[in-house]
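Bug: token stream looks shifted between consecutive jobs. Job 1:
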Amino acid sequence: MFFLTGASGSGKSASLPGLRAGLPTMDWRDFDEFGVPSPCPREWRPLMTERWIQVALKNNKSDKDTGVVGGAIMGEILACPSAPSVGKIHVALIDCHDVVRLDRLRKRGTHGVTQDMLSWAAWQRVHAIDPQWRQDVICGAQVDTMRWERWTNWQRGDPRWRVHVLDSTELTIDQVVDRIVAWVRAKQFPDLHQAEVFSSDELDVIHRQDCAIR
């Protein structure tokens, strides 16, 4: 299962059509496609994350990988009650510079051109690297089924805490898609792609070579 996360303006939703085209055998879904309540309670996101994990479990029965693009958070993913049943869960954070994020959101004409959004992006940036950073931001959600204790004692550098970070600041959407496709294929076929050894640019080269061979 694959989660693509990040604050608004990073390029997540814009990449979804390209991901569906580039990885057609996967079930690519929008995290918000079931609707978002207004106002949105704090517990909604972890409960929705669990719902998507349940979708992945159903897809696993037919040997289909699931990709979810949207607002999931690494710590909440790991704490979901059904997370251990999925097998492997891979998480990528799509990030960008603050000014670029604001420009994108202004151009889009939607909500999020606020300091709160920049602060949320900054928290996610640190959370992707350090599981100890401000755990109260997510662990305060009143959801009795969440198993926060699975990871709250983990320290920075723990090999179990792995978030792939993609900086989309200077990339087109097509380039973002290419890098995500390469990352996903590297995780699906680690013996072929040696995902832990290559950088994103090198994975792009491998992906193009694979396409040429096919």
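Job 2, same session, no restart:
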Amino acid sequence: MAKSNPQSVYKAVQTSRLYEQIVQQIEEAVKALREKGLVEAFSGRGTFITNGTSQSIRQSLDRMLKIGQPEGSLQLAEVRAILEPGIAALAATRVEASHLATMREAYAVMDSKRDDPEAYIEADLDFHLSLAEAAANPIILSLIDSIVGVLREQRIRIFNVAGGPDRGQFHHKRILEAVEQRDPVRAYEAMRAHLEQVREDSQASSPQRSSMNSSAKAEEPSFSKAIS
């Protein structure tokens, strides 16, 4: 009796309709669990049960975000502006090949999915989470994971701002290049510029807030004039 070739059997299973249905059901189940905050999926690394601390932080920030819109979104953007430039700089000195591979993959997905909000935003999250992982500090990873999770809705609004994805990709490329070259100063400045763009797009996505800020800026004396 001829022995079956394991590779042939595996290939036959992979191309079967039943296999496709099983994979689809698993993906839907993981998506449902992720939306409930029970698991976290990381591109190229797998799916993991959520850390209790991270989940607690996420729930607290989620409540703040919902109560304080649009102020909550802008306040979270300010927190990111405080944290993430330093994280990018640290990541540039500690990054490993696996982190770079994930960041490159996420960048490529964003580049090809500028007309697909869900795919673009998930890749955006993967990009920033990979930076946090590269920093090799579990506290940083927990904090940034919590923040980018609750910013998913804000990212959707930013995506819908005219030119938002294109501006985001411009900055993502600069961040990736700086990290690839292990240049912490450039990584810091690239992330700082990116988060300034995020803040501006957040304001543009909220007409009322944008109008209020424009009025405030018109009345506010410049810093250089104040000290001259």
